[in-house]
Amino acid sequence: MENYQIDNLDRSILHALMDNARTPYAELAKRFAVSAGTIHVRVEKMKQAGIIVGTRVSIDAKQLGYDVCCFIGVNLKHARDYPATIEQLEGFEEVVEAYYTTGNYSIFIKVMARSIDHLQDVLINKIQTIEAIQSTETLISLQAPIMREVMP
Amino acid sequence: MENYQIDNLDRSILHALMDNARTPYAELAKRFAVSAGTIHVRVEKMKQAGIIVGTRVSIDAKQLGYDVCCFIGVNLKHARDYPATIEQLEGFEEVVEAYYTTGNYSIFIKVMARSIDHLQDVLINKIQTIEAIQSTETLISLQAPIMREVMP
DNA sequence: GATGAAAAAATTTGCGG
DNA sequence: CCGCAAATTTTTTCATC
């Protein structure tokens, strides 16, 4: 968890692994003209430093029938209801992200649903049943042309 | 890319790999009481079906000095400027996600920055230099209490 | 389809520069 | 800190049920 200043080699390794975490170390070694052992050492260091948090498979939600992605701006009646509201939102599996924000909304959430009908169901029968919510505003995402991670 | 109806075993494997893509197949095999070969076959099938898209390391942007996360609602002067605007936004590494949305904004983007100063710089010297943009509205995220993927 | 063992490949460790 | 190579672990294949 300490600070560790990454160098160019670390950066290159990170880039490669962010694209494909299963790239063999031997291949990275060849690509960056170092040994596989060195790649291993660097990766371990970045894990230790808390830079690399884990490795996950990424799935195509569409292939699993989740077609609708939307953002919902939520306004609360009272700011003090924030923790309780988050807890309730966490119980709805369709809510995949939540942000506590400054600006127009108190909470900003991302919801994945199977269809417009399903989204409507989530909105009416789940989200809008939360007492503390005053109003919501929905932005349906038709397309996500950019989707990547920050690249230091 | 065809349709493939996943069963409970597939779902369990998916859950495990979404949490940690490096879980050895032998361990999953023990956990789900099947053989390692079966795990392998199922994973390959889900790859073939386009359900598993790839594996990526997840990094902690904070550890790399990216402290500020924000959303920006963008309004365009003309809807026809959409493709060109996306192209320009793509050139700014701080723009990590972009959505084409219905509702209050034409485009909705997520931006990661090193600091409030850096964010201001991105806003003024990058995003707002795009001719086609009429107005923007910024929501700064103070916290992200929920962050997960959809779990079929 | 699933299994389990054998073969191939990749990761990890430790010694020596 | 790096490289090399041995030791270990994991993935992949395949004949068989």
Automatic annotation (TrEMBL), chains A, B:
Record keywords: DNA-binding, Transcription, Transcription regulation
Keyword Transcription carried by entry: yes
GO molecular function, one term: sequence-specific DNA binding
Cross-referenced SMART domains: HTH_ASNC
InterPro entries for the chain: ArsR-like_HTH, AsnC-type_HTH_dom, Dimeric_a/b-barrel, Tscrpt_reg_AsnC-like, Tscrpt_reg_AsnC/Lrp_C, Tscrpt_reg_HTH_AsnC-type_CS, WH-like_DNA-bd_sf, WH_DNA-bd_sf
Chain ranges of the HTH asnC-type domain: 6-67
Pfam families cross-referenced by the UniProt entry: AsnC_trans_reg (PF01037), HTH_AsnC-type (PF13404)
Biological process terms in GO annotation: regulation of DNA-templated transcription; response to amino acid
Gene Ontology CC terms: cytosol
Transcription as UniProt keyword: yes
Protein name: Transcriptional regulator
